[in-house]
Design a protein that fits this description.
two-stranded antiparallel ribbon; Isopropylmalate Dehydrogenase; 12 strands; globular
Amino acid sequence: MNARIAVLPGDGVGPDVIAEGLKTLRVVGEVYGHNFETVEQPIGGAAIDASGSPLPGPTLAACRKADAVLLGAIGGPKWSDPGVSVRPEQGLLDLRQKLGLYANLRPVRLSPALLDASPLRSECIEGTDLLVVRELTGGLYFGDRREAGNDGKAFDTMEYTETEIVRIAQVAFRLAGERRGRVASIDKANVLATSRLWRRTVTSVAAEYPDVRLEHVLVDAAAMRLLRRASDFDVLLTANLFGDILSDEASMLAGSLGMLPSASLGEGTLGVYEPVHGSAPDIAGQGIANPIATILSAAMLLRHSLALHDEATAIERAVDRVLAAGARTADLAGPSKPTVGTAEMGDRIARAIAGDGRSGGRT
């Protein structure tokens, strides 16, 4: 296969972890006979510094021409002045909107080797394998807003249409049908009008998927259940804000935010793939960031945009084997425990993929 991938390293540790994601893709290409052409462009704070825009025209054009987009991270203290009109995060929000990416997939699977890495008791997290399906282009982040003026008043508006809810619900039910057949729809229907619309609409969509079981869970109850018995969940269907918060909470189940990949998808096969973690400017360039979330995002890219399922599985299997062998970046290791750096973790995973390919995929 020949495929073009737009690469957006971004800010902070973005370039550090993107280098390891690309290393992984290169090895996959060599082992499985694919050619991945990459085109690098700026986004976020780096793009503001270069052009004044967090999403320059050439960056958007490169993404539209690509088969998939691999993104690092954006933002940092340099661009965090709340008084400025242009912020790095606007680049990512604009990219999602202009590419029509309304479905954000955030898988949370606990690698068996990391059972002791979570601050939670093993009986609470063992068997965790869930998928957060987050609506990405509506809700509180995109509604009407007003910054505080002299009157000391500000507001943000949460809006949803039935059409927006139907399309994200269909994604969640379809994916649940490929997994364990359960959808937990997360809302705050006891308080919010948008959540009552959400609940009615999701219930209607559920009738189209008789083999998938639906339950409605209030967001506060869902937050508690994630920490008490996460294995109860299969697919969590959420509005934009709730999905953002719950998926970050779920990072504690996997051992670290550095373990969580994501995919942002629309109607076609083009998607943006990125780690859930932020830019972590305090450790940028030090070679200690965990690249696994980016490497697993590359696996999602292969699976969802390029339909290379075996190759995606090979990456995921390699990550598990490297972790089982004891390799840990600083975020995963306990105090005074030996660690490996960003590039070394990437090297070990790349070698595991190559070894898997030579053995014909046997473990």
